[in-house]
Structures are given as structure tokens and as C-alpha cells.
Amino acid sequence: MEFHIERAKVLPKSNLWSFLEGLKKISPLIAPVKRGNKTVFSEVNDISDIIINYTRTILPPKKFLVPYRRVRFTYSTDNLSFSSNFKARDQIIFGIHSCDLHGISILDSVYLKENPDPRYLEVRKKTVLIGISCMPDDYCFCLSTGTAFPDGANWDLFLTDIGADYFVSIGSPKGDELIIELKRLFRDIEREDLELYKRSTRKKKEAFKNKKLPDLERISQLIELEYESPVWDEEAKRCLSCGTCTNVCPTCFCYTSIDVPDFEGKTVKRVEFTTSCQYPYYSLVAGGHYFKPTRTARFRHRYYHKFVGYPYQIEKLGCVGCGRCSAECPAKISMVETLIRLRGTDEKEPGKAAEQTSAGRSL
Amino acid sequence: MVRIGIMGLTGCSGCQCEILNCEDAIGKLIGKVEFAYFPLAQDVNDFSEFDILFVEGSVSTNLDREKLIEGRKRSKLLVAVGTCACYGGVQSQRNDEASLDEMLKAVYGDTKLDLEVFKPMPLSDVVDVDYELPGCPLDKRQFVYTVASLLNGVEPFFPKIPVCHECKLSETDCLLLKGIPCQGPVSFSGCGAPCTASGVGCQGCRGNCDFPNFDEILSIYQDIGLSFDDSVKFLKVFRGKTISGLKVGSSNEKGA
Amino acid sequence: MKKSLEKLLNKPLPVDPFKPQRAVITDIEELAPDHKKFTFSFLDEGVAKSWDYIPGQFVMLTVPKAGEIPISICSSPTRKGFFELTVRKVGRKTKVLHQLKPGDVVAVRGPYGNGFPVGIMENHNVLIIAGGLGMAPLRSLVWYILDRRNRFKEIYLLYGTRSYEFVLYKEELRRLKEREDIKCLFCLDRVETPEDREWADIEGLLTELIPQVKLKPSETYVAVCGPPVAYKFIGKELLKNGYPESQIFVSLERKMECGIGKCGHCQIGYKFACVDGPIFPLWDTKNLPEML
């Protein structure tokens, strides 16, 4: 009997570049490319720039769904008519890791569940998401957050490295259409491919064996109960409030909106820009009151929102374990470390452990 | 017609040049506003009265002071442009390290000066300043935004976000993590982070962001090999008045 | 999970919730120093007709050239064809708003937020406690109740301000005080002038008025709005007097940019003041950090 799976195909690695070339012909193609020592998502003109094996990009692919600075409306002061010449374009984002796909599904919930934002929806409808499997480095903790593997229905294709080939999972009709379009590059799944695919899951899990992972069991409750913990003060002391952690986060969405008039006062642009809860002005109301007055309050708020706020609002953790906030922090504050300290260990008294960490740092 | 004045005190005139570089904006403004006073750019100037007066440079001599006080009296709004006018500028970075006599002696020797000089200070030490646009030089986009807002009777909005914001969002690799001294995390953004993008650490030319964490940044500088004294000097270059009295080791915890 | 995500993406493009409707200022009344009450009506007749709201809800008001601000509605939805906002001149946007004149056009979107649970308050006593500018959203509730008086049992209004000068809606409240179907008790922080004396029932704080309320706590809903510092003391005093904490509702303000749970600024603990509030049960204030 013929072995047959409709939800997946096999792409031989030797066909990958033809596949990418094919994608680029269909729509503008966005993929990871090199910048200095790091990798960033960027629109590609030459597919040979694309980096297939990377660990993490500085910014998540979010920037192609929600630009960091955007004009929401232009309005005329004569008749206050609001207009927008925004038009979403077709785009394919290739090479997204599982954590970032989960990040996008969280953004989907934030933007589309209640009071859906038509602009985000338009962009999402016109965007094809193609994921690729990856191996973790020391900052990754996606195994704890349950985001090490793609699930859900928010992506279109996902390529899993199974040695000589990619196992291509088809997540949506849009993904299926791409496969049909580039049919000649794919072959059907053999039993052996499926075995290799299942083994790749075990291989990624094994790669986490010797890594420090936070235990996120009942994390919402833990953070609520440890709200007054001295760990917050100790970690916040090192925090520069620079906002890097939120700016690189695949799930952060806060923005500030300002109206910018032109010289004549005839037309006004309503500009939205990404902001961070780590900036003092974020909670400042007219009259001069700061609702999050201390560095500790702001530092703690990020954890609180990720692990208590998101679960309440959208029934998912707000952290996908991509490790960007820790990898990019100029003060080298580690989310994993903070979570581990909050939970405490059986080995040492929590107070003692705290002392040792801070002593270790000043050396 | 709205009357605008642009004048310079002690400084390099770089900010005034930068204003002149806003060609598109100035083109649009001519005919809608009157540049009544702008000696750097035009021959005929009238110092009688202004709606908005932009002042560059620090107050370092009695001439500066008199001109500034006079300008304040004649203008509805006074905007300090550039780091010299806002914080005292690079010329004030050693204000707390030597007396005026020592400074004069070192620079002029025994030559007698026929004007009164004092330690360079920001405009706000002498008169009330309505808005401050720091930067060395000031940022053109901010100047245009400020003029547009003020012409419309709206106060401009400048949250004091750190430079890291713009740096990270332009996907520049963090220089501090590479071991290059950078003042991004404690400096006021708005410049678009061009220095870090070309691999030069932020020099803090726009002054402090809201509630900067100097303790941590000093400790990072020392981790990457700067001495404590050099770290403090590095921070002091552009911050002028806003960093004097910095107490290291104070928690700086309270944000409000 | 898979199903819900698919559903999200397969929706048709919704009506843009960020796009405001035009409204004209029909009247401006100076209530107190730096406090003005603005009356608006929508220019589009269809919008004006269908627009409805609940006391305690707010709108995002576009002050032309300056930007959007969240303001609670101070008129009652029982009065149709217009709505009112009371605004204190306190920041860069409200400064511009205070310069506007009748006939000027603004843009408004909303109403947003949950509003007071007026439905479950029916057939109960209602105790309304207002401090300072907190009178604005509660004025909406007062008139909502008075216009549907037979649906509610006994009504109390406690109102405290710094001095008579800062009392909002002076004439209106004076007339309310004469009515039989609502009991009004007013207090002032300082009673100095003859006007203060004529106005105030007591010199002191709202907490001192609470014991004077003659209502059965278990059959009473309480609505509180005032400066954040007051909530702690008012809450404590209410609990001391036997009001169940599930029946006490407070209105909170935060910085807001969008009003619809997208900008993040208004987070209080795990809730958004804009969509989960701005009216919260007192129980929340104990469980959400940084609430008060």
C-alpha cells in the first residue's frame, strides 16, 4: 500500500535554493541575513544572502507585521476627516523559528481577539509564514515555555531538518498553494522520513539536557505570591531601564501615539511608536503622577505581564523562551536566572543563594 | 505673522548651521513666519520682539547674559537649542573640578580680559526656558517638529527615552556587550542612534534620559576595562550641569 | 487552540475601532478653576441616534492637533442627543482643549470600558461617594438613577472637595440637595469662607460622612470615584461599616493611548483599565498590585 500524507511533503536539501528562488518570484521575500556578527530579518534581493542556520535574530519578525513606527491616520483640521493610505502588501517571511511563530500567534490573540485591529488583520492575511527548525543555544528556554515546536494554525509551512532533507509540514491552505506552485521541488513522504521527523523532536529535547531551564509550573501564581520578594529589588538594581528587553521581545506590543501637525496646521499625522514599560514616562499621567514610580516596579511589571497578565488576557504565557531579552541585555540580566531565583531551590536557603549571586557579580 | 528669532551665545554655531540645513522646512516656513533675527544667515536683523526665540550656546560672559535676558523679555517663548544651551555643553564638563581663577590662568595666563566671564552655564540658570532641544548638534527632525507644534499652539512632546530604544529598533548590535563604552542606556534619545550604528559608542550628547542608572553603567564600564575615574569623566563630557552632584553608590532607585 | 487561531485570521476586516466620529462643541461651562464642562453632539445623525453608553464609561477624545485623551462621560445616557465631558486643565492636551470654543469640532470614539454595573444595582440601595473630579463619572450615575428612580431603592450621594471653590456642578447639586428622593451629604477639607459654611455638612473627609449613611449595607451597592489616595481609606471605612466588598465598585484612571486594550499603558496588575475597567470591584484592589 502506498504511504501517503497530505499534511506534509519532503524538500530535498539540494532543492532548498530553488525553493527560495521560487518563493522570491511569488512575493517579496523576507529572510534571516547577516549583519555584523548577528542575524536580522530583512527583505532579500539575492537569495544567497539568506542564512539558514542561525540561532536568533536581534529583532523578531514582528517588525514586518507591526512596524515600530507607523502613521495610523492623517486628518485635516478643517473638517476632521480621518484617512489612511495604508495598504498591506503580499510578503513571505521565511526562516522563522518555532518560538517566533508562537510569538506571532500571541500577537494574533492580542490584536484580533477583542476589538480587532483591521490593519494587523490585513497584514496577517497577506503574509505567508514559513518556519524552520533550530537547535538551542545557552539563552534558549523554549522547552520550558512549551514553544520549542510549532503547533497551532497561524503558520503556513514549517521545514524540519531531517538530515538530507527537510520535512515540510503544511499548516494552511496558503502553504498548500505554495507547495502546489513549486510542486517539482518536493517529493512525497516515505515511512522513513516520518521516523526521522519524529526523531528530530527527541534530538531537540535532548539538546536541552544540560541547560539551565526555569520551572514554569504554576508560574502565574508564583509571581503573584512572590510580588514582594527581595529578588525584584536585587535584579532591578542592575536594570538600566533601557527597554532593550521589550523592544526585542516577540510578544511585546505597547505603543504610544502622538499627533504631529504640519506647519500650516492643516493636516495632522497620528503617529504610533513602539514603547516600553521600562521607561518611566510609560506610566506617567498628566499632573505628574507615576503609577510605576520605581525601577523595581517597572522591572517586575515585565515579568508580571508576561506570566500573569497574558495568561489572564489571552490564556497563554506571554513568554516564548526565545532568550532575546537575556542575550541582548547590556546589564546581562537573565530572565531564566530571575525566574530560578524567584522559585528558590531546595539546596540552599533562598536568602543565602541571593547573597552568593550578588557577591559573585561584584567580583 | 509669527516672528522667529535665532541667536547664538557661546558655542560653535553648529546648531544654527543645523537649523539652516533644514532646507525643506525653512522653504515651507518662509512666507508663513518671519525670521526677524538670524544673524548667522541674514544681514538685516531686528531684535525688537519675538513669538519664539531659539537660543544656542551657553552663558559664559556678561554679554551672553545681557543678550539672553534682553531676548527673554522680548519673546513670548524661549527655546534652548543644543546641549550648550540646555546643560552648559562640553565647555562646562570640568566646572566642578577647578575654580574660575584657575581656569582663566590656564587659558589666558596674565592677560587681562575686558569682559566679565564666568563658568559656562545653561540658559535655565539665568532665565526661564520654555523648551529644551538638546543634542550636539540638535536634531533637525526635532527642531521641525517643535516649530510645527509651537506654531499650532501645541506643546511638543519629548519623552526622555534612552538611546537604546532607537539603537535596538534599528537592529544595531549592542556595543556594551562587545566591550565598547557606550552611554546609550543613560542618554536621552531622539537622535536616531547614528553613532552606535557606525560602531562608535554613544557619547551622551543629548544628556540624561529619565532617571538614568549611573551606578550600573559605571559598573559595566569598569567590567569592560575603564577605570572608575575615566568612567565618570566619560559620562561628564556632555552632561554639564545635569550630572554634577552625581553620587555614586546612591541607589537611584526611586524613579519619581 | 488551533481552532480559535484559525477563527481569528478568517474574520473579515472589521470596522476600524481607531477611527473617531466628528462631534461639535455646543456648550462650555466653567465649573471651577481649570475645570470646564464641555457639551458635544455628533455631527453624523446616524451616530448621534445610535450612540449609547453606560455610566462610568469613557471616550477617547481627539483634541485637534494635540492628540487623544481618555475622558469619562459625565452626562447620563438617559438624556439623549448630546453628551458631556468635564475636563481639568492639567497637561499639554487638555490645555489645548480648554482653548476651544462652542462651534469647534472635535473627534470622539467610544464609549469604552465596562461602566458601573447598573443592571445589578437595580432594586438595591446605591451609595455614591465622590471626591474632587471623581464627581464627573458619578454625575452620570446619579442622573441615570434619578431618571429611572423607581428601579432603585434609597440613594445617597457623598461628595468631598478641597473647598467650595472646587465644587463641581454647584447649582445642580444644590437643587439635588433639596430633593426628597436622594440624600446628599457634602464635606470640605477646610471650611473658611461663608460660602464654605453654607455648602458643607461637615468640615473633614469623606470617611467621616460614611457612618452617617443610614442604609442596610447588605442591600447596598457602593460606587466610588476620587483621587487614588482616598480609595484606601474609603474602602477601609466602608468595610468597617459592613458593606460587602463584592458590592463596592471603584473607578480608576491610568495613562491610555488606545482605549481598546492595544497600547498597554493602562495595565493595572494583570488587567487593562480600558477593557477590564475602569470600574473595578474593591476585591480587585486587594489582589491587583499597584492598583491604589
Mean pLDDT of chain B: 91
Amino-to-carboxy terminus distance of chain B: 41 Å
Helix-residue proportion of chain B = 25-40%
Figure out the total of helices of chain B: 10
At CATH level 2, the architecture of the largest domain in chain B is: 3-Layer(aba) Sandwich
Series of secondary-structure elements of chain A, N-terminal to C-terminal: EHEEEEEHHEHEEHHHHHEEEEHHHH
Measured by DSSP, the beta-strand proportion of chain A falls in 15-25%
- Give the uncertain stretches of chain A in residue-range form: 350-363
Through-space gap between termini of chain A: 67 Å
Chain pair with largest interface: A-C, 61 and 52 residues
Strand percent estimate of chain B: 5-15%
CATH C-level class of the largest domain in chain B: Alpha Beta
Shape of chain B: globular
CATH fold call of the largest domain in chain B: Rossmann fold
Task: Report on the biggest sheet of chain B.
Answer: 5 strands, parallel
Order of helices and strands of chain B: EHHEEEHEHHEEHHHHH
The rounded Rg of chain B comes to 19 Å
Key descriptive features of the protein:
heterotrimer; A: 363 residues; alpha+beta; 2 domains; seven-stranded mixed beta sheet; four-stranded antiparallel beta sheet; 13 helices; disordered C terminus; C: 292 residues; alpha/beta; Elongation Factor Tu (Ef-tu), domain 3; Rossmann fold; six-stranded antiparallel beta sheet; 10 helices; 15 strands
Give an overview in words.
The complex is a heterotrimer of chains A (363), B (256) and C (292). Chain A is an alpha+beta fold and 363 residues long. Chain A has helices spanning 16-26, 98-112, 118-125, 142-145, 173-181, 191-207, 219-225, 230-237, 244-247, 295-314, 324-328, 335-343, 350-362, and strands at residues 8-12, 29-35, 38-43, 69-76, 82-83, 91-96, 127-132, 157-161, 165-170, 255-261, 267-274, 284-285, 289-290. Chain A has two domains: 8-65 and 86-207, no CATH class; 219-252 and 278-358, no CATH class. The longest helix of chain A is centred in the C-terminal third of the chain and has 20 residues, at 295-314. Chain A is globular, with a radius of gyration of 23 Å. The N and C termini of chain A lie far apart (67 Å). Chain B is globular. Chain B has 256 residues and is α/β, with parallel strands linked by helices. The longest helix of chain B has 13 residues, at 62-74. The N and C termini of chain B lie far apart (41 Å). Chain B has two domains: 2-94 and 120-151, NADH:ubiquinone oxidoreductase-like, 20kDa subunit (Rossmann fold, 3-Layer(aba) Sandwich), CATH 3.40.50; 163-242, no CATH class. In chain B, 34% of the residues lie in helices and 14% in strands. Chain C is of the alpha/beta class and 292 residues long. Chain C has two domains: 21-111, Beta Barrel (Elongation Factor Tu (Ef-tu), domain 3), CATH 2.40.30; 118-251, Nucleotide-binding domain of ferredoxin-NADP reductase (FNR) module (Rossmann fold), CATH 3.40.50.80. Chain C contains ten helices and 15 strands. Chain C has a seven-stranded mixed beta sheet with strand order 10-9-8-7-11-12-15, with helices on both faces. A six-stranded antiparallel beta sheet of chain C has the order 4-3-6-1-2-5. A two-stranded antiparallel sheet of chain C has the order 13-14. Classes of the chains: A alpha+beta (363), B alpha/beta (256), C alpha/beta (292). Chains in contact: A-B, A-C, B-C. The B-C interface holds B 152-155, 157 and C 65-66, 92, 95-96, 99.
